[in-house]
Amino acid sequence: MYTDIEQRVCDLAEYIIENQSTVRAAAREFCISKSTVHKDLTERLPRLKPEMYAQVRKLLDLNKAERHIRGGMATKRKYKETAAR
After folding, report:
1. Residues 13 and 42: beta-carbon distance below 8 Å
2. HEC states along the chain?
3. What is the CA radius of gyration of the chain?
4. How distant, in Å, are the alpha carbons of 9, 12, 80 from that of 70?
5. CA 55, CA 50: separation in Å to the nearest integer?
C-alpha cells in the first residue's frame, strides 16, 4: 500500500512505459482500481512529470485505439474454447 501518492504515480508511469501495459494490467499489478490508475496518469502525472506524461499519453491513446480489436480477439478465444469442449 502506498502512503505517498506522488511515488505511486511515478511508479505507475514507469511500469506502463516499461511494459507497454494497459490501465487494467497496471491496476492489477498495483492492487488498485482502474479509476485510480487513470486519475493518477491523466491528472496527477502531468503536474509531476510532464515529459513522462507525454510517453504515457501515447500508450494510453494507442491502447484506446486498439481496444476494440483486443475485445474481438478475446471473444473469439472464448468461443473457440467453448467449441473445443
Report:
1. no
2. CCCCHHHHHHHHHHHHHHHCCCHHHHHHHHCCCHHHHHHHHHHHHHHHCHHHHHHHHHHHHHHHHHHHHHHHHHHHHHHHHHHHC
3. 15
4. 26, 22, 15
5. 9
pTM exceeds 0.85: no
Predicted confidence (pLDDT) per residue in 26-84, tens digit:
999 999 999 999 999 999 999 999 999 999 999 999 988 887 787 788 888 888 888 87
Specify the pLDDT at position 74. Answer: 82
The count of residues in the chain is: 85
Q: Nine-digit cell at 19?
A: 511494459
